[in-house]
Design goal:
Beta Polymerase, domain 2, globular, Hydrophobic Seed Protein, disordered N terminus, 54% helix, Four Helix Bundle (Hemerythrin (Met), subunit A), 5 domains, disordered C terminus, alpha+beta, 40 helices, eight-stranded antiparallel beta sheet
Amino acid sequence: MHVTRALDEQRHQASPPSHPRPPAAAGLRASLGGAIDALCAEAKPGAPPRAAVVERLRAALADGHAAARAYLDAGGKGMACARYLSDLEDEIIGAIYDYVVRFVYVADNPTFAERLTIVAVGGYGRGTLAPGSDIDLLFLLPYKQTPWGESVVEAILYILWDLRQKVGHSSRSVAECLRQARADVTIRTTILEARFILGSAELYRELTTSFEREIMRGDTRAFVAAKLAERDQRVSRAGSSRYLVEPNVKEGKGGLRDLHTLFWIAKYVYRVREPEELVAAGLFSSAELALFQRCEEFLWRVRCMLHFLTGRAEERLSFDMQPTLAARFGYHDRAGLSRTERFMKHYFLVAKDVGDLTAIVCAALEEREAKPRAMLDRVLGRLKRRAQKLPAGDFSVDHDRVRVADEQVFERDPVNILRLFSIADRHALAIHPDAVRAVTRALRRIDANLRADKEANRLFLDILTSHNMTEIVLRRMNETGVLGRFIPEFGRIVAMMQFNMYHHYTVDEHLLRAVGALAALESGRGPAQAALAADILPTIANRKALYLGLLLHDIAKGRKEDHSHAGARIAHSLCPRLGFTPAETDTVAWLVQHHLLMSSIAQSRDLSDRRTIENFAASVQTMERLKMLLVLTMCDIYAVGPGVLDAWKAQLLNVLYWETEVVLGGGHSAADRKSRVAFAKEELRAALGEWGAAEFDAYAQRHYSAYWLKADLPRKVRHARLLRELNNAQAPLATTVDLDTKSGAVELTVVAQDHRRLLSIIAGACAASGANIVDAHIFTTADGLALDTIFFSRAFPLDEDETRRARRVADYIEKALRGEIAISEAVAARSAKDRSLAFDIAPDIVIDNSFSNVATVIEVSGLDRVGLLFDLTNAISNLNLNIGSAHIVTFGERAVDSFYVTDLTGGKILSASRQATIKRQLLEVFAPAREKRARAREAGGTPAQP
């Protein structure tokens, strides 16, 4: 059921030796009643002191929340906190009801029709509340309602609203509840969790009895299908993976709502009332019930603390909150991980356990035929199942799932653990939960002997290089703990997050997605951006080395040393065990050690510079390595997160591959460059069919070869038409806006007379207008025009809204270039709202003359922030340097910007003292933000990260 406990120390943070006693709400209604009686006694007859009553209730509510927070701060339990807040709300509502019926709407001789029941529903109905949760109430009224009941309900609601509480409410009769429950699964779920607070117990019994008799005895299959479909939609909105690095504690996959969905289904199908009854119903074992309760406890503690710290119903565990929660919960730096990363590893292990519990419930429902049967993955229904027989005696197929013959299957032969997953892969089968349970109980059988077994290693390599369902089966092996036991180094990175804004997933999830991306490329289902990688993949001689290199490329993350070098050592150790030859082992180790090389050079170096290509070719050395590195790099970037592998990055990688291919093949790069430039020109000529030959030839002369090689065809077409409109303009200035659907970014192109501060002004205008630059492509025409394309993040989901915003940014840039705006002041005002305080990255400046034949390369890396590019380019201009090309790359919160610069005479920066001055002044750009962060830490703000 759970991940290998040897990998699991993150679950046990440094907790206080004993938990404090939770506060108690019992008796608050009575004490408030006495205080309200006294207030009313002092008031004038017929004029209840409503304002004073509300103030008294507000104070009681505030005191209760303060007690809950103090309890949680002292190491208290999350569930106890949530139950106390629910009890507190019960007492407050009871006191409000007493006040209303005794002093506001008094019914001296209430009739049968003047009955009222207040019922808690939703999360409040479960008897748990987070500090910022909505209060969901059902006011149950008789069939024949009276003005008295409606007035009481209205008065109660107004007081709750005066207390600034978010109230979800409905007023219905029992018949109305039943009628709406038949038509709406959401209302059915609401009533399923109804809990009596006060009023007529008879009305409440009538509701629950009728609901069970008339609604719950209906089609359970339809209810289960609706709840699971609802869960799929919710998870899709919050993020389809449970391993997102900023997870939603409530709505995300593996979050609290998943546990709630399990229990709703269990209550509806198995007629249980409390989680403890799930064992008697045969749904959970005692160990699985304990796991359910541990998951619930941890998630509630995180959620309650998150609400308290933010002062609102914040459900997303964002980067700026993670360090604070880690500190509050007593985590410490250890084993190469910061306390934040250890806290988040605990979170993801819990989310994984929630997923395991979900699988158990779904399988049990299938057994009862309350849920449609599903294959291992929905796409598998389209795959042709192979007809091989299963190994006799050990495995069987039950409802399209592999089962084990008995509990001793893995005891008799531990290799059967690998065979189980191999069978699932070969035959496109899911694995029965009973088999999964048997695997987790047999994890101790995955020892040194099994890891040395040739057949076990052959089976693993077959799964890894399968043409069937590699990613799906590897993920199942990971979730059961098998992958981490069979490759212990992989076990170290299970559920490990990297505290940065670049990676969307945990390390293990990223590696599995990367392998999945490679499998998709092989099957023709890869992303369009990786078309070149797909084309060369069949020509790679050793695909198993490529697959293993991809699986291992980040396996050494979380260690103090460089993970690329440590990963290469792991490859050298693992490959012989898997039957690799020494040459194959060297290839895998080289891929792991250099897996960042191609991406780094493509994005941060000038690919039109001959020296860049020669240096890269010297590192790669062979065509086979170049092919493998391109495919690995594409898959690696694609697996980082949605939209990360965009058309521009793919184009840069393609150009680097083509340029290096020529050098490694013994050809002449300059000659090949000429042929590709000529092809690019003809391609554009065909796309601009309305242009005459003379006009096009004159236009083509305006661009250097670097432009023809780097820009893709759609951009070339847009640029050509834009420059055509500006022909012969006295002071050329124009901007265009396009929504880049491939990358999810906004593309803004600026054409203006080139000058030393142009890029700085554009960057400053973007920062001041709230446009977060994620990339910039800089070109200069032969006739002195700058053609700069800036990419910035979207702010709105709808294209029309985003287009309007982007147009405003473009107008702001034009005003800035005309000198109508004071850029420095505008950037300073915007930077006050920066989010970068959650991170701490030491800045680094590298000045190198070996990267280019004609320019000095200044590579600046450090914490990204609002206005950073403006400040850097402004500082470079103040140093009297010309920027020939700029390569702006953002990896989450880390900016890595490379500038190819020359002095005013067009030469390189060779003087050591001059280089030292450049470094010093560029480092000063980062100083204010670091000082600001230090002050925030001293004031008790975001903790530092190692």
